[in-house]
């Protein structure tokens, strides 16, 4: 993993070297590590109800494991999970006691998923976190010479009937002793005191974290949030609240809206009157043009640390606008079910981001995505070491916490190998987004359509800030509706009605042949519609989701909506409607 760069700080050189050596060992011995991991999981959980149910007790070879244990979804195991949530303390999935439940992000339809976890999983998460900066240091040296402005948040926990906590995985980690009592690491010094991160009130947390970031602006070397959308929310927060923040900096007195005692106490040690800084922030934020605002306020920032893969990819142009084109680093791949791996080339272009799954984190299998495969003979799952470059797979996991052959729902494409470890690009979530008739449009297809349509807006210096969609079936025939929030940099030269109509057609031209056949030949699908909504509509949508229990840390705008209150909110903010002016191109496929 040698990269031409200056040497790390001597005080941390040994730790960095150990981390990089660990990566080398894991990626060079993928299959043997996977074999050991599965044996450990099966041995320790041999007395569980779940494994006994399938007459599998104790370590066994992989083929017997695959023959006896079925591949499952959340719905398949939800009854057992609910028993644990209701107070059943028997060894259902794991012989280790369930320490808490990790919840899904809460943005999908229906109830949030509850994932039982065990205490030692925190060690595995901390291990993966410990590998990130040693890798980054190979590409961006000197990150131990300053601080990170990372907007990190927790959510107030809920409790299941059993008394076990249910909370997002990041809330679990930030509230753990692993995080609160972490040893000093010069590569991970945050501008935000722990008290501001651990404050459950999202406004007070964001306000105090932003204030700290402004006060320490010249020390900041990287700016980030978990998801790209979270960083854009922080920028929007600054746009709305900069006058109050400036007043605090000028007077050295914290805004009375911040009432959390621990936050006020820690801020009293940081916040001092600084009229020069207040004047500078006023000068920058009072301008109408916010292009490059991140680089202007935090001039020493070397990169943005945000996830920009999958649905987050559509935020890239807006982040480039606000950051003056700073590199964006998607450093790791993780979920509530399991932490998977990391990006070994974190400074690559967004389109080239791929993740190397670490074989020690769990046992991984891969379900080939082959549309032409016969339903009578489902494809055989492959081991981590056996996947093929260029092929797409659904990720299936077996974890120390007691998930066995569980379908995560992520579709990954193999882009290459590092040593013997495959590297994957995140393609999409498996769930289909839109369907009117026999058509099925997924997230990746819709995203591509949005990108192609957005190219028509460039000459008007306009970009798509946010979008969602739904299948309008009340009309006959039904049609796709796309809600767009636009960033118009020059209102005097905004896109015309004709251009926005052409955007509808551009999206349709990007969709699959089944959709286009429905439009052209079958007349089963009506013209695609774009509804442009007022600025900040999607901020309101997120506020609504958070009020209903979504985590601010893990919130992602749903790419398809159907919940009536959300539909009513979106429709109440529509400022214009546009339809595809003609039929997309379609010709019958030649079949052999």
Automatic annotation (TrEMBL):
InterPro entries: GH3, GH3_C, GH3_M. GO terms for molecular function: acid-amino acid ligase activity. Residues 355-429 form the GH3 middle domain. One of its GO terms (cellular component) is cytoplasm. Keywords: Ligase. Residues 445-563 form the GH3 C-terminal domain. Belongs to the IAA-amido conjugating enzyme family. This is Indole-3-acetic acid-amido synthetase GH3.1. It comes from Manihot esculenta (Cassava).
């Amino acid at each position: 993993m040698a990269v031409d760069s200056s040497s790390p700080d001597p005080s941390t050189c040994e730790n960095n070297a150990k981390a990089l050596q660990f990566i080398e060992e894991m990626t060079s011995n993928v299959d043997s590590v996977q074999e050991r991991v599965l044996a450990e999981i099966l041995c320790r959980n041999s007395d569980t109800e779940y494994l006994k149910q399938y007459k599998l007790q104790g370590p066994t070879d992989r083929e017997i494991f695959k023959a006896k244990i079925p591949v499952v979804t959340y719905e398949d195991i939800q009854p057992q999970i609910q028993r644990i949530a209701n107070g059943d303390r028997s060894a259902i999935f794991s012989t280790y006691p369930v320490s808490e439940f990790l919840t899904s992000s809460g943005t999908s339809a229906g109830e949030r998923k509850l994932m039982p976890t065990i205490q030692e999983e925190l060690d595995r998460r901390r291990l993966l976190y410990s590998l990130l900066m040693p890798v980054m240091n190979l590409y961006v040296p000197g990150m131990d010479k300053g601080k990170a402005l990372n907007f990190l948040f927790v959510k107030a926990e809920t409790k299941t009937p059993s008394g076990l906590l249910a909370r997002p995985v990041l809330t679990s980690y930030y509230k753990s002793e692993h995080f609160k009592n972490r040893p000093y690491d010069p590569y991970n010094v945050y501008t935000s005191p722990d008290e501001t991160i651990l404050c459950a009130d999202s406004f007070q947390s964001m306000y105090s974290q932003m204030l700290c970031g402004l006060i320490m602006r010249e020390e900041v070397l990287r700016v980030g949030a978990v998801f790209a959308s979270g960083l854009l929310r922080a920028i929007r927060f600054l746009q709305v609240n900069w006058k109050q923040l400036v007043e605090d900096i000028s007077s050295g007195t914290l805004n009375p809206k911040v009432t959390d005692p621990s936050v006020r106490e820690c801020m009293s040690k940081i916040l001092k009157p600084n009229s020069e800084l207040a004047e500078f922030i006023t000068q920058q934020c009072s301008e109408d043009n916010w292009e490059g605002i991140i680089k202007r306020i935090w001039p020493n920032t070397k990169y943005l640390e945000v996830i920009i893969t999958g649905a987050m990819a559509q935020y890239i142009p807006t982040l480039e606008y606000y950051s003056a084109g700073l590199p964006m680093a998607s450093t790791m791949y993780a979920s509530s079910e399991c932490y998977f791996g990391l990006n070994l080339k974190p400074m690559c272009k967004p389109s080239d981001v791929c993740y190397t799954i670490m074989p020690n984190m769990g046992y991984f299998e891969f379900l080939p995505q082959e549309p032409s495969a016969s339903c009578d003979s489902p494809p055989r799952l492959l081991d981590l070491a056996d996947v093929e470059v260029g092929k797409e797979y659904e990720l299936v996991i077996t974890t120390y916490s007691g998930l066995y052959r569980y379908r995560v729902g992520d579709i990954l494409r193999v882009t290459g190998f590092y040593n013997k470890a495959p590297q994957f690009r995140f393609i999409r979530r498996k769930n289909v987004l839109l369907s009117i008739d026999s058509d099925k449009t997924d997230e990746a297809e819709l995203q591509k359509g949005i990108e192609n349509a957005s190219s028509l807006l460039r000459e008007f210096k306009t970009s798509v800030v946010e979008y969602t969609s739904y299948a309008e079936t009340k009309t006959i025939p039904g049609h796709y509706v796309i809600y767009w929030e636009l960033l118009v940099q020059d209102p005097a030269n905004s896109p015309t009605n004709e251009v926005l109509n052409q955007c509808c057609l551009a999206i349709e031209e990007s969709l699959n042949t089944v959709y286009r056949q429905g439009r052209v030949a079958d007349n089963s699908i009506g013209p695609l519609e774009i509804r442009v909504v007022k600025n900040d509509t999607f901020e309101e949508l997120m506020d609504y989701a958070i009020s209903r229990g979504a985590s601010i840390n893990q919130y992602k705008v749903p790419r398809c909506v159907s919940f009536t209150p959300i539909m009513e909110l979106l429709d109440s903010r529509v400022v214009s409607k546009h339809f595809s002016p003609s039929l997309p191109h379609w010709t019958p496929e030649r079949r052999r």
